[in-house]
Amino acid sequence: MSSKRVLVTGGLGFIGSHTVVALQQEGFEVVIIDNLSNSSLDVLGGITQITGNTPEFENIDLRDKTAVKDFFEKYEDIEDVIHFAASKAVGESVLNPLLYYENNISTLVYILHELNKKPSAKFIFSSSCTVYGQADELPITENAPVKKAESPYGNTKQIGEEIINDTCKINVDFKAIALRYFNPIGAHPTAEIGELPIGTPQNLIPYITQTAIGKREELSVFGNDYPTNDGTAIRDYIHVMDLAEAHVTALSRLINGKEKNNYEVFNLGTGKGNSVLEVIRSFEKVSEQNLPYKIVDRREGDITAAYADTTKANEELGWKANRSLDDALQSAWKWQKVVEKREEEEN
Ligand code: UD1
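# uridine-diphosphate-N-acetylglucosamine complex -> structure
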């Protein structure tokens, strides 16, 4: 339990909003910064429905260095930050790299600049398993080498980690954890909050649920000639609530002084890999309907297989994913039906 306020940037986004719920349920008081560029104020209502508690909210664009400085002056007690705010579309990052470096790197630097002035700042960073590229060995441990990034998006995660690590080296009182997420999916079981992709979804699960609800004609399965059991690519799909809880655990580790180093890295995954066809089967089971799909060519930049070795997170963080793929897909489907109903009511 802590009565101190925690800043959650991007707290109205997909993983951010679920983490705000998890934080509030552990007794943390939360302040959200979000610029609503890829989220909606309605999410604040969803969080309040679940926890009975509305977090403080500041509509700030973190690319505004002065606004970041002003924020930390206004909320001078805040020294714990979970930083989600970032852009995350791989394809868009290739077309508009400077946008990605500004959104994901400049903002990080501005926040660290302010936090670095605090006597005991704690910082949790959203990183990604994308830093490993196609790892040489599976499951992937935190010691697997970081491979050259395939996209500016991936590069921002690698550079972000380095910036934080460098900051920790020169300031021993600054503590940080980078969390490398595998594939976050699902929604809160109440379906009050979930993923809200803008436009055509690029990720597998929102594409599946939108197809099942009739918004998309059919799912394209990108490649069935991978060297896997059924030829489709393998990923480690982790329920967003498991992921959210890991953030609370990581922050608590720093607050309680349990860290081994002032900069640490953890993989967050289930440890289990599932192929695209297995995900489709699991979705068909929990939704009790057939999903129309066709096999198409591989998507450029996709890797064959990635799943986490979760030993370090289990043993050192004392965290593990508890929810199944079926649970996650069930919650994503429930959420899609709520979104559909809301859209019908609006029209
Ligand atoms: C993608 C990003 C990754 C990012 C992550 C964030 C790419 C190449 N990678 O990971 O950098 O960190 O999202 O969530 O965009 N699939 C289909 N049909 C679809 C969509 C996906 O078959 O319509 C397949 C993909 O080929 C892949 C799997 O489903 O094998 C998962 O895809 P996705 O949800 O996009 O995640 P990643 O590609 O793993």
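# post-check
The chain is about 40% helix and 15% strand.
The chain has a mean pLDDT of 97.
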